[in-house]
Amino acid sequence: EAQVTQNPRYLITVTGKKLTVTCSQNMNHEYMSWYRQDPGLGLRQIYYSMNVEVTDKGDVPEGYKVSRKEKRNFPLILESPSPNQTSLYFCASSLFRGPSITEAFFGQGTRLTVV
Amino acid sequence: GQQVMQIPQYQHVQEGEDFTTYCNSSTTLSNIQWYKQRPGGHPVFLIQLVKSGEVKKQKRLTFQFGEAKKNSSLHITATQTTDVGTYFCAGEGRSQGNLIFGKGTKLSVKP
């Protein structure tokens, strides 16, 4: 089954404790992306990757890191989480058919709480 | 920076009524995508529009892309309770891969 898998689904952590949210897709998609969703603000892009070893900042990259060492994985790293990073996070992947990305497949989401 | 505005923010309808959500971009878009997110769920792709003036239909859903490729709309005819959710439009922004979402329109349907 084609899918995007995020882990963990729920996470409560303390300020400053480094954490990683994993994202994996089994569709051989070139493009992967991370979003955060907050009430009233919709989905905002954090980082995206057009292919292996290629990453770019989205609209809200501050406080986050990513890496794309393999095509299927795109982990999101919070080196020193703060309470304002409490949010619902989604990973997504798409094919890239130049000049545009195509339909995005989203993971189930990770609800992160930083206290 | 580029913005994608979506209105209305909320829409409450009686089952059987029609529903429309509108999306406007501050710049010309290469294409626009529409997604639906059910309560507690993740966004699910509905459609992608690429051509100026394009109109596509999916059963009771009609999608339009404006002639100038700066606006789009989603129209649902005769809403059903299964249509409940938040509808988002999204366009590529300052560079390929920079996908910008509208804030969404939350649809509730009263039976």
Descriptors:
heterodimer; A: 115 residues; seven-stranded mixed β-sheet; four-stranded antiparallel β-sheet; globular; B: 111 residues; mainly beta; six-stranded mixed β-sheet; five-stranded antiparallel β-sheet; 11 strands
Sum this structure up briefly.
By secondary structure, chain A is mainly β. Chain A is built from no helices and 13 strands.
Q: What is the quaternary state of this protein?
A: heterodimer
The fraction of residues in strands of chain A falls at over 45%
Query: Strand content of the residues of chain B, in percent?
Result: over 45%
Structural class, judged by helices and strands of chain B?
mainly beta
Write up this protein.
The complex is a heterodimer of chains A (115) and B (111). Chain A is mainly β and 115 residues long. Helices cover 0% and strands 53% of the residues of chain A. Chain A contains no helices and 13 strands. In chain A, strands 2, 4, 5, 6, 9, 12 and 13 form a seven-stranded mixed beta sheet that branches. The mean pLDDT of chain A is 95. Chain B has 111 residues and is mainly beta. Chain B is built from no helices and eleven strands. The interface between A and B is medium-sized, with 30 and 26 residues.
Describe the secondary structure blueprint for this structure.
The complex is a heterodimer of chains A (115) and B (111).
Chain A lengths: L3 E4 L2 E4 L5 E7 L5 E8 L3 E10 L2 E4 L7 E2 L9 E3 L8 E8 L1 E2 L2 E2 L3 E2 L3 E5 L1
Chain B lengths: L3 E4 L2 E5 L4 E7 L6 E6 L6 E6 L5 E4 L2 E5 L5 E6 L8 E8 L6 E3 L3 E6 L1
Parallel strand pairs in B: 2-11
Antiparallel strand pairs in B: 1-3, 3-8, 4-5, 4-9, 6-7, 7-8, 9-10, 9-11
